[in-house]
Design a protein that fits this description.
20% of the residues lie in helices and 28% in strands. The strands form 5 sheets. It has a 19-stranded parallel β-sheet that branches. Strands 5-4-1-6-10-7-11 form a 7-stranded mixed β-sheet. The protein binds uridine-diphosphate-N-acetylglucosamine (UD1) and calcium ion.
Amino acid sequence: MTAARPLAVIVLAAGQGTRMQSPLPKVLHPIAGRTMLAHVLAAAAALSPDRVVVVTRPDAEAIGKATAPARLAVQAEQLGTGHAVMAARKELEGFHGDALVLYADTPLLTAETLRRILAARDGGASVAVLGFRPADPAAYGRLVLAHDGSLQKIVEAKDATSAERKIDFCNSGVLAADARTLFDDLLPRVGTNNAKKEYYLTDVIQIAVAHKLRCAAVEGAAAEVLGVNSQDELAVAEAAFQRRARAAHMAAGVTLSDPATVYFAADTEIGPGTSVGQNVVFGPGVSVAGGVTIKPFCHLEGVRIARGAIIGPFARLRPGSEIGEDVHIGNFVETKAAKIDRGAKANHLTYLGDVTIGAEANIGAGTITCNYDGFFKYQTEIGAGAFIGSNSALVAPVSVGANANIGAGSVITRNVAADALAIERSPQVEKPGWAAKFRTLMRARKAKKD
Ligand code: UD1
Ligand code: CA
C-alpha cells in the first residue's frame, strides 16, 4: 500500500514560459477556469501528501499566492530540472518517505496515474518514472530500457545518439524516488556535462543504476502528460480537458444533448438525471443538483441550482445566485447574487441582482432590480407569492411584502406591504371617438395637398 510511506510532492514551476508570449506566468494560465498549477496541485492533493513544495522563480509573487497552503521554494537561477528539484531540498529537511516530482505545466495528469508510479516504488524500484509514447517524440527525453525491462537511463534528445533517438518511449518528467536517496545520494552527483550545460533531473537514473539501484518506467497515456508551452498547446489541453469532463459527467448520469458544445469548469458539479442542452458554458463555482433542466445557450458561473429547476434557454446566472427547487429562469434573464426560493418564476427579459425572492413569487417580463447608484449596491427583497407586473423597476433598497402585487410599468421606490397592490404610473386618460375624428381630419388635409 502506498499509504504506508509518507509522501512529499515537488512541483516544478520555475521555467520561463516565454513561448506563451503573455505577461501572466505560464503556470497561472487557466484550463477550465482553474490555473494549470492548481490542476497539478489538485492531482497531488488527491494522494494526501504530507508535504507539497512548489519551486518557483524569485520574481514570481503571483505564483506564490496561488500555491498556498503548499510550501514555496525559490530557484534563484534556472539551471535545469535537477537544479530545480534541489531547490526544494530545504523544504524537505527531516522528511523521510517518497518524493514525487511533477511539472506545473503538465495539467492533465490524473491521480490514478500518479498512484501507479508510487505503486512501482512499492514494487521495489528505487526510482520510478512515468513514460509515454507521443505521436512525435521530437524533443522529449528517451527512456532506455535494459533487457529485463528495467529503466537504464534517460537521454535527452539533444544528447541522444541516432539509435537512441529512434526510441519512441519518452520521459513525461514525472518521477518518484525515496526522498533521502534522491537528495543525498543521487542529485548531488548530477553534473552539467551535456548539450544544454544544465543539471538534468533525468541523470539520476544512470547514477542510481551505477549504484545498483533498480529503476522502473511506468507507461501512461500520452493525452495525460501533454505539456503546455504555448497558447496553441494551452488550447489543445483545454480541449482535451473538456472531452474528459464531458465523458465524466455523462458517465455520472448527466444528459448532454450535444456534448461537444458544452463547456465545463474544473469544479463543475452536476447531479444525475440533469439534462444540459446545446451551447451551455459552465464557469467556475457551479453546482447543479440532479433533475434540473438546463436549456440551450446558457452561461452559468458561481451558482447553485436545486432539484427540479428549469433554466434557459439564453439565461445568464452570475456569481452568488442560488436557484431553489422547481424555480424557472427563462430567456434573457440575468441573475447576480439572487437568492430565489422554491417555485418562483422569472421567465423573460429580466435583471435580478442583489435580491431575495420568496417561494412561488412571479417576476414579470422586463422586471429590473435597480441595485446600483453608481457608487454602492443595494438589496431588494421580494416576499413569497408576490407578483411583479411586467416592466417594473424596483429601486433598491426596497422590499415587496409577501403576496403583494406590483402593477405593470411601475417604478417602485418605497416598501410595499404584504397583500397590497402598489401601482406607480400616470392615470390612464380616455377620449371617446378622438382617434376616429383625428383620422377624418388628417385624411382631408392629405387629400387637399395631393
Ligand atoms: C524535460 C525532461 C525531458 C522530458 C520533458 C517532458 C529533463 C532534463 N528533461 O525536458 O526528459 O521529456 O521535460 O516535458 O528533465 N524547470 C524549473 N527550473 C529549471 C528548469 C525547468 O523549474 O531550471 C521546470 C519548468 O518550469 C517545467 C519543467 O521544469 O515545469 C520542465 O522544464 P523544461 O525546460 O520544459 O524541460 P524539457 O527541456 O522540456
Ligand atoms: Ca518542456
